[in-house]
Design brief:
It comes from Paenibacillus antri. With 248 residues, this protein is mostly helical. Helices cover 68% and strands 2% of the residues. Strands 1-2 form a two-stranded antiparallel sheet. The protein is globular.
Length: 248
């Protein structure tokens, strides 16, 4: 199958398939003399596997490492996908049920207990925690968790508002040069915010640079950051790298 046909079949863009090829995640087995990519049935199986992993919010780099691991067992992975997606569906169903009840309460049809208002929400398992431990070590993560766990609801809200304010400022600057004085002043605010005791850990300049790179490498972070403005993750990466270089 040609790339356009695969795109229509799988519901992913041609650009995405080209990107998968460029990073070595999914390179078609065959290419015509004219340079057209041709996908085999085995390629389609690999693409399906990639999309299953993406449903679990795994970054592309991690998916690539998993698929290249000699011990990778496709059947075992499929069984695990099924289990995890069923758990995900169950949690979403509970949240939807809470939402439906909340709508009914807003209409005056029912009265919810405080416990019912929060059924289905569970943020005790941070999907990024293991990755953070691998990148920055257990101590930084444990310190951060300890600090965040000690905050009151009002303190957590203030922390979130402070972070959002900095992101909003940076989003307004994202179309300009990342090395401008104004952009670097905002980047410094972000560096100081991270190291100001808010998260209970200290980021060295090199770790700060690495964090900015992860904003782009990990599409989960890119997606969340770019909610403030498309391209903000790339602007942050560039600005944080400039800041690290200038202050080294």
């Amino acid at each position: 199958m040609k790339v356009k046909e695969v795109s229509e079949l799988a519901g992913v863009s041609v650009r995405t398939l080209h990107h998968y090829d460029e990073i070595g995640l999914l390179s078609p087995e065959h290419t015509t003399e004219a340079g057209y990519r041709l996908y085999s049935d085995r390629d389609l199986e690999t693409l399906q596997q990639i999309l299953f992993f993406k449903e679990l919010d795994l970054p592309l780099k991690q998916i690539k490492d998993i698929l290249r691991d000699p011990s990778f067992d496709r059947q075992e992975a499929l069984e695990l996908h099924r289990k995890m997606l069923l758990e995900k569906r169950s949690r979403i169903d509970r949240v939807l049920d809470t939402l439906e009840k909340t709508i009914r309460q807003a209409k005056g049809e029912i009265q919810m207990t405080n416990e019912e208002k929060f059924e289905g929400f569970d943020f005790s398992n941070n999907p990024y925690e293991q990755e953070a431990r691998e990148r920055w070590g257990d101590k930084a993560v444990d310190d951060s968790n300890k600090k965040l766990g000690s905050l009151s609801q009002a303190e957590r809200k203030a922390l979130e508002e402070g972070m959002n304010a900095i992101y909003a400022k940076l989003a307004a600057l994202r179309h300009g040069p990342a090395d401008s004085d104004e952009a670097q002043a905002a980047i410094k605010e972000w560096y100081d915010f991270l190291n100001g005791g808010n998260f209970g850990a200290h980021y060295s300049l090199e770790a700060f640079r690495g964090l900015g790179q992860m904003y782009v490498d990990d599409e989960r972070f890119t997606r969340n950051i770019d909610k403030f403005g498309e391209g903000l993750a790339r602007f942050l990466r560039d600005g944080m790298a400039v800041y690290a270089d200038r202050n080294a």
